[in-house]
Fold this protein.
Amino acid sequence: MERGRLIVFEGIDGCGKSTQIQLLANWLETRGRRARVTAEPTDKDTGKMLREALSGRVKRTPFEMAAMFVLDRIVHNTAEDGIEATLRKGEDMLSDRYYYSSLAYQGSLCDFHWVKDMNVNCPAIRHPDLCIFLDIPPKEALARIGRRGEAKEIYEKEETLTLFRDTFLRVFESIGDRVAIIDATGTPEEVAERVRAAVKTIL
Ligand code: TYD
C-alpha cells in the first residue's frame, strides 16, 4: 500500500491555517484519498502542558518551551493514532503547525541551533513531504485575530509576529525541506487554489 503524505501548515497566528487545512482535507477526499487533520500542540497530556504555558497561566522559559514542544512532537509522531501509524495506513496527515514553528518561535527566543538540531536531527520526528507556509502581513493577521474576539495568546503582538514571520522565512532558506510559500491574502477559495497547486506536485 502507498504511504500517505505528511503535509504541514505553518504561518503566524491569524494567517488562516485552520480554514485552509480543512479545505485541503475536503479536496483530497474528493480525489479519493483519505486525509486526517491534526495539530500541534497536540491534544495529549504533553499538548495540554503547553497550552497552560501559552495562555500565560503557567510561566515557562523559552528553553522549557522548546523542550516541551519537542516532547509533544515525538508523541505526535509515535502515538498509536499518531503520524507514523496514520501514514502507514495510507492516509494523509495534515498538521496545523510542526517543527518550523519551534525554529521560528523558540529559535528566536532562545538558541536557534539547539532548537533546530533537537527537531531536525531527531530520529523520532519525521520530515514532512511538504510544508505550506501561509504568508500574510502581521498587521492583517492581527486584524483577523481581533475579529475572532478570543483571548489573545502571549505571542499575538505586532512586533512579535513580525519577528516570527522574518524568522520563518530565514528558517526555510536554511533547511533542505520542501516548502511552498503561499500568498495568504485574498478570499479563502483563492488561497485554497494556490495551496492545491502546491500539493499536486507531491501526490
Ligand atoms: P494555537 O492556539 O494552536 O494557535 P494557532 O491557531 O495560531 O496555531 O497555538 C499555537 C501557539 O503555539 C502559537 O502561538 C505558536 C506556538 N507554537 C510555538 O511557539 N512553537 C511550536 O513548536 C508550535 C507547534 C507552536
Q: What stands out?
A: The CA atoms of residues 154 and 178 lie 30 Å apart.
